[in-house]
Amino acid sequence: MKKLILASILVFAFTDAAFAAVRTVTLSVPGMYCAVCPITVKKALEKVPGVSKVNVSYEKKEAVVSFDDAKTTIKALEDATFEAGYESSLKATGKEDSAK
Predict the structure, then answer these.
(1) Which of 27, 57, 71, 99 could disulfide-link to 88, CB 3.0 to 4.6 Å?
(2) Where would one find the signal peptide in this protein (predicted)?
(3) What are the tens digits of pLDDT across the range 56-73?
């Protein structure tokens, strides 16, 4: 009986990890107005738990972010840029929500 309970606990413990996926989204960050702005946005996004990669383009006024969707959300990414002084929103392109 103890083995069955232990096995059940282990199955449930690893179930969330099995459904987690790395997602890549593009955020529009229209408020970037100088060459230093992308550095600030990148640092803010890198502090979000689960973020694995951030590329910020001043010219395109966007940030491409790869993250573990079991650890964070798009809302948390948007909140991080907002707290750094830059509003952002999910950009509608073909790059969003790609699982790797």
Answers:
(1) 27
(2) 1-20
(3) 999 999 999 999 999 999
pLDDT at 96 over 90: no
Q: Of 38, 32, 39, 41, which Cα lies nearest the Cα of 78?
A: 41
**Domain locations in the chain as residue ranges:** 21-99
Q: How far apart are CA 52 and CA 83, in angstroms?
A: 20
Are 74 and 68 in contact by the 8 Å Cβ rule? The answer is no
Please say whether the beta carbons of 26 and 95 come within 8 A. Answer: yes
Q: Considering only CA atoms, which of 41, 50, 91, 86 is closest in space to residue 68?
A: 50
Q: Which fold has domain 21-99?
A: Alpha-Beta Plaits (3.30.70)
